[in-house]
């Protein structure tokens, strides 16, 4: 039986019932809240493994809830919202959300994002992620200690920027990273690159790690938002 605990903060009864039915079929434990204030209290008391959050709540904006939770917790937060503008997605992700699904959404996609969030949470809880010296994902591997990257056990020669980009994505596998987040992680607070430069570096990286850069297997683009490393 699946012991993972999911907190659902959603005020739409139809969406709540859909999510509850989905979680029931997968044997997840869950708790629901219909307001932001109730959700914040439950976030403290319920100790969920993942939070599914709507942004348009009756008493407060979901982005405010994300910021409040990030003040004391790293619990994965999956936003499920009718807001489809890129600016809304970027704001939520920059505030600390791990993922963003636009309504209406596929149940299979929700479950896939949920499984990815739970894997990240498990790694965080066990402390395995920082201790791993080699990252493996499909035919791609990164030897952090040696600073080397391999595809099909053959070394790939990356530039320093390409290597930094790949490491940032790899260490956040399954999580959507905004352009601003990646720029800060790779170039620091004093940006020496912008989103257009990032696209150029990402294109050269894909040519080296992807079997077919036109249909990328590892690095997924979220247009207007950022990038995600996909677990194979």
From TrEMBL:
Q: Which residues form the Response regulatory domain?
A: 5-118
4-aspartylphosphate modified-residue sites: 54
Residues annotated to bind DNA: 132-231
Q: Which Gene3D superfamilies match?
A: 3.40.50.2300, 6.10.250.690, Winged helix-like DNA-binding domain superfamily/Winged helix DNA-binding domain
The answer to whether UniProt assigns keyword Cell division to this entry is no
**InterPro entries associated with the record:** CheY-like_superfamily, OmpR/PhoB-type_DNA-bd, Sig_transdc_resp-reg_receiver, WalR-like, WH-like_DNA-bd_sf
Question: Localized where?
Answer: Cytoplasm
List GO terms (cellular component aspect): cytosol; protein-DNA complex
OmpR/PhoB-type domain boundaries: 132-231
* Organism domain of life: Bacteria
> Which Gene Ontology BP terms does the record give?
positive regulation of DNA-templated transcription
Assigned keywords, A-Z: Cytoplasm, DNA-binding, Phosphoprotein, Transcription, Transcription regulation, Two-component regulatory system
Give GO terms: molecular function aspect only: cis-regulatory region sequence-specific DNA binding; identical protein binding; phosphorelay response regulator activity
Q: Check the record and name the SUPFAM superfamilies matching this protein.
A: CheY-like
Matching entries from PROSITE patterns are given as: OMPR_PHOB, RESPONSE_REGULATORY
Q: Name one Pfam family in it.
A: Trans_reg_C
Function in brief: May play the central regulatory role in sporulation. It may be an element of the effector pathway responsible for the activation of sporulation genes in response to nutritional stress. Spo0A may act in concert with spo0H (a sigma factor) to control the expression of some genes that are critical to the sporulation process.
- Name of protein: Stage 0 sporulation protein A homolog
